[in-house]
Sequence to fold (228 residues):
Amino acid sequence: QVQLQESGPGLVKPSQTLSLTCTVSGASIFSNEYYWSWLRQHPGEGPELIGYIYYSGGTYYNPSLKSRLTISVDTSKSQFSLKLNSVTAADTAIYYCARVRKQLVRTYFDYWGQGTLVTVSS
Amino acid sequence: DIQMTQSPSSLSASVGDRVTISCRASQTINIYLNWYEQKRGKAPRLLIYATTRLQSGVPSRFSASGGGTDFSLTINNLQPEDFATYYCQQSYSTPYTFGQGTKLDI
Fold:
């Protein structure tokens, strides 16, 4: 079955770069029906879309984070990655990777990683 | 960005009850509306997509309706495993946005 797994440091210092990787198994990252996304969730809130990437490298970034954000894909490893620079305490959240099916009304997040807590603190 | 507003924010119910959760979009989103369930410490799980379509493996006691700006999720015959937080999410335009959640508890 489709599985996604986030990995990366759980603690990042303010002003530094948050880096996470998502490893995909049980599904081809090459599929033309799916994009690969990052979301985050602050305590007590709904998830927030950070951005997503297509296997060919095309990206969408949430405008609220765009200036600090890079999402990349490594198809040889079935992985995609997130880099968010100049982090502050406001970036402390649970970060999820998820698969996005994008087909008109059939556009949704159907498989998610378990999530990883990233804390920004000195 | 399209704002999604859910009501109520929390809801108390009992096993066997029927509950309805509402979701309103700040502008029309046609039927581009999905529902997720999230249990404590877990990732969200897709329940319903395109307003009314049940995701594979989701029990038939879950149903949903709506269109335009107003949507609802109904759970019939509540089971103990249904006590969770529910989120609506629009996929009409980027950035896709979620509601603030409705916590369903006993």
